[in-house]
Every structure is written in C-alpha cells, then in structure tokens.
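User: Before I run my own analysis I want an independent prediction to cross-check against. Here's the chain; please return only the structure tokens and, at the end, one sentence I can use as a sanity check.
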Amino acid sequence: MTGVQTCALPIYQCSSENTNFVSIAKINPAPSLEPQPQPVNKKVSYIALGDSYTIGQSVCVTCRFPEQLKKKLESTIPNLSVDLKIIAQTGWTTSNLIQAIKEQQPTSDYKLVTLLIGVNNQFQNKEFSIYGSEFPQLVQTAITLAKGDKNNVIVVSIPDYAYSSFGQQFGNPSKTSTEIDRYNAFAKNYCETNGVTFINITDITRLGLEETYLVATDGLHPSEKAYSLFVDRIASKASAIVQK
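Assistant: Structure tokens:
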C-alpha cells in the first residue's frame, strides 16, 4: 500500500510512517549474566609499642588510644577489620620495651605500627644517652615489624605529666617539662631525618591543669578524652596507611 510502512516486528518497535526503530534493550534491558562484584572485607594488623600511655593505665581497656584508633579506623573505612596487638606495660623504659619485643617475637607483617616510649627513661632519671641509642633501635625495630616499610610507622610524642596533679607534686614540674622537651626534640629530629612520621600530642597533655577532664582519675595519666584527642591527630595518617 502506498504511504504505509509494513513491519514484521511488534508494533511498538516500528513506525507506520518511517523506518526509525526503538531498541529492544532500551525498552526492557536483559539482566546481566556477569557476576556482580561483592564488597571485600579487608583485615589489617596493627601493633602498638610503648608503656603506660599505650596500655592505658587507669582507663578502661577500650579507652586506651590504640583501641580507640582501631575503632575509629573500622568505623570510618567500610569493611575494614583491624587486628590489634599491644606490647606495652606501665613503667617500661626503652630498655624494657626492647627486651619485651625480643621475648614476644612478634611477626614482621604488620600494616601499621605505633611507637610511644621514653617517659620512664626521664621519670627514672636514666642517662639520656640510653634513650639516644635505644630510641633509634626501637624505630628500626618498628620498621622491621611494619614489613620493612617506614611509611607504615607512626611515632607519637611523649606526654607531659608535669601538667597533672601528681606531676605538680613530684619533683620540679618545670624541670620535668624541659627534660620531656629534650626527649621529644630528639625523637622528632631522628624521625624527620629518617623519613618516619612523628605526631605531636604533648601540647594536649599540657592542658591538664586547666582542663582536668584530660587527666585520668589517678591524677597522672591521660583520660579517655585525652586519648581521643590523640587519636584525632593520628587517625588521618593511620587511615592512609591501612588503605594503601
């Protein structure tokens, strides 16, 4: 017939006036036969090395900073699971930590390592030269535990206990702060020279006399809130490490 387009396809796929066809796929796309990717759970290992500031003296188990860091990483990174190990004890000096690591022999496959050590060297009046030789040794050990990757290591500065009620009554608070500054300056310089991340949290603890909630109930160690402020400083770098 003149002026009429015949078509063997269903009527909604052709026009009686022209030859413009509509794609079947656009009308009713067929389900894909390809398997859809599923979220993959990622598990990473984290080891925290230190003393009372790492084990969390006078705060709850989940209040110490490594536990808070673990929780923050897991809550902000989808499908992440963090396996945390802590080698730390109240009163440990650099010498004690070195010995404990030798005894426990942790594996050398940690994705993230934090190191916070030195306050007991100062508190126990150890020769500074001990810290000067053993801190670098501990940093190198931390790198070894971090799969040999220095970029997986975070060194945290030493808190200043002079800004606590105990610290005000023990010895000379001004001298304590000066000595802790010396330890931290050495640690920071060593880390920067060797390309290791150093994060300062000392200033947070120096608010302890004004903001008493930053000090635990023992009047000496950081509180849960203080540790959460530590984690706020550490989390960004730690997050980048575990996701790379």
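Sanity check: The beta strands are 42-50, 80-88, 112-116, 153-156, 197-199.
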